[in-house]
Amino acid sequence: MPHREEDMAAMDVRTLSLKDALDLAISIEEEARVRYDEFSKITGGRYAGDASDMFRQMAGYEARHGEDLAARRRQLFGESPRRITPDDLDDVEAPDRGAPRTFMSARQALEVALAAEEKAHDFYADALREVKDAEVRKLFQELLEEESNHVKLVRGRLEQLPGGPDVEEDEADAPGSDGG
Question: Residue ranges per domain, the chain?
């Protein structure tokens, strides 16, 4: 099984069993959850609804989705060992490691989350073009629809935030900015 990003691209989704496909999906959710938890700590908690809160909420969504997939796997395959784990992939849905900054706005955090959800959507759309096994196709189609819903959810949350620009988004948080 792959262990680096370039190896992930070499994973042949056409040969995945349903068990392996579930392991892959669970691992994708776990990787994203861990990354969002890390981002929440990096961005700190300055006020309710800040970037840290946004990342914690995203971690919660990923955890719930992963738990649902794990329950489904246990129902179908019991406690058989996983062949694919988060260590076997890199950045399928997890947000970009370089994205968080201490003084990010909630809007910027949601933009990071949106890019991650779109990345996951694209992964499943690409995989569906390759997968032949009917059960794996059905699972990946469900996951594609789930990721489409996540994209809509994050876009909806973005639309609810007050409009910018403000100092935080324009100046203090700009990559490479000196904050002034």
Answer: 15-161
Candidates 152, 147, 138, 149; CA nearest to 22 is 138
Residue-wise pLDDT for 122-146, tens only, equals 999 999 999 999 999 999 999 999 9
Q: Does domain 15-161 have CATH number 3.90.1170.20?
A: no
Identify the residue whose tokens are 């955090």.
109
pTM as predicted: 0.82
- Contact (CB, 8 A) for 71 and 22: no
Is residue 34 exposed (0-12), middle (13-18) or buried (19+ Cβ within 10 Å)? middle
Q: Residues of 78-98 as b/e, b for ≥16 C-beta within 10 angstroms?
A: eeeebebbbebbbbbbbbeee
